[in-house]
Design brief:
This protein is an alpha+beta fold. The chain has helices at residues 30-42, 91-101, 117-123, 192-209, 231-237, 266-284, and strands at 4-8, 20-27, 47-50, 56-58, 63-70, 75-77, 82-86, 104-105, 126-128, 137-139, 144-151, 155-160, 179-186, 188-189, 244-245, 248-250, 258-260, 293-295. A 5-stranded antiparallel beta sheet has the order 6-7-13-11-12. It has a 4-stranded mixed beta sheet with strand order 1-2-5-3, with helices on one face. It is globular. Bound molecules: flavin-adenine dinucleotide. Flavin-adenine dinucleotide is lined by residues 14, 49-56, 70, 87, 113-116, 118-120, 122-123, 125-127, 173, 179-180, 210, 213, 218-220, 293.
């Protein structure tokens, strides 16, 4: 097993922020992942599992323990409309492109969102229903059939969708340290042309509203949705769009997003999060609750 010491985590996140992990391991198979987790438990080494780091803010002082990056690969078509994907597979482009090529729809709604299959299960990945109405939220839970997990208590087992208790930005994985190894998705046949059309519209939507990740790191929305109002709108109403702290900035086009303008630290991001929370509470009377996960020492 190739375990690296004192490894900077910033390059493994979409924010491009985060100090060193004492230990770092890239798990390339279910067997490797199960083995390293059992070893960490036996040796009482704290561990954390990450995918693309697209929903994490890792502290500037890093993570004391073992960071495991989930890179379990594999996309297998089991049946006419069922696909099994390893939990380290990128939903976009890898899994979505492979399924759309077969004329299978369901996952295509999530084109352009950085995620692994495991991260998508954790947070119940979601996006709006296709244009022009965009009136409904579509969740990845809608196409999950079952999953193979390394359970916190019972070893490796197969569980069905209901096990995950999916809700908005929630699955049971928030409260139980189970690890997803692979997921079976049940998809619907559709015209490849129509699937491509929806993907293109969703990608265009993102391009016009979200930062270009190649230029500016981010983790998408920072705060949980506030039904009927919008966390971003509240921050905007307080005049905080464009506000900077060190290398971090509240994004000009969408105030629920913070971007890394190049040399942002986790403390810079935390300062903007605090500022938004305090100002919105004072001026608008709403509590902003972060939807991202804070990892390690700040
Ligand atoms: C530009 C941008 C746009 C975004 N837009 C959206 C959007 O439209 N909709 C949306 O829902 N999200 C969006 N996000 C947030 C993010 O893409 C999702 O939360 C994504 O699912 C995170 O996946 P990840 O692999 O990066 O997980 P990570 O951020 O690495 O980890 C997130 C959590 O998942 C857990 N986890 C990871 N792998 C496993 C596994 N195998 N088993 C168990 N737990 C695991 C981790 O322990 C951690 O707690 C956006 C992010 C960015 C950067």
């Amino acid at each position: 097993m190739n375990i690296e010491a004192n490894k900077n985590l910033a390059p493994f996140t979409t924010f491009g922020i985060g100090g060193p992990a004492d230990l770092l391991f890239h798990a390339k198979s279910s067997e490797e992942l199960a083995r390293i987790v059992l070893t960490a438990k036996e040796l009482e080494v704290p561990y954390f599992l990450m995918g693309k780091g697209a929903n994490l803010l890792i502290g500037d002082r890093g993570f004391r323990g073992l960071m495991i990056i989930c890179e379990i690969a594999g996309i297998d078509f089991l049946d006419d409309n069922i696909v099994r994907a390893g939990s380290g597979v990128a939903t976009y482009p890898n899994l979505i492109t492979a399924t759309v090529e077969k004329g299978l729809g369901g996952l295509h709604h999530f084109a352009g969102i950085p995620s692994t299959v495991g991260g998508a299960m954790w947070q119940n990945l979601h996006f709006l229903s296709p244009a022009p109405d965009r009136s409904r939220t579509i969740f990845i839970a809608e196409v999950v059939q079952s999953a193979r997990i390394l359970s916190e208590t019972d070893g490796i087992r197969i569980v069905d969708k209901s096990y995950f208790k999916f809700a908005y930005d929630y699955s049971i994985l928030h409260d139980q340290k189970d690890i997803v190894l692979s997921v079976d998705f049940v998809l619907k046949h559709g015209s490849p042309q129509k699937l491509h059309q929806t993907m293109k519209e969703n990608l265009d939507w993102r391009k016009s509203r979200h930062p270009d990740l190649i230029k500016f790191g981010s983790v998408g929305s920072i705060f949980k949705k506030i039904e009927g109002i919008g966390a971003g709108r509240l921050i905007d109403l307080c005049g905080l769009k464009g506000k900077m702290h060190g290398g971090a900035q509240i994004f000009e086009r969408h105030a629920n997003i913070i971007i890394n303008r190049g040399a942002a630290t986790a403390s810079d991001v935390r300062a903007l999060i605090d500022l938004a929370q305090v100002t919105v509470a004072k001026e608008q009377g709403y509590e902003l609750v972060p939807e991202i996960t804070f990892v390690g020492e700040f």
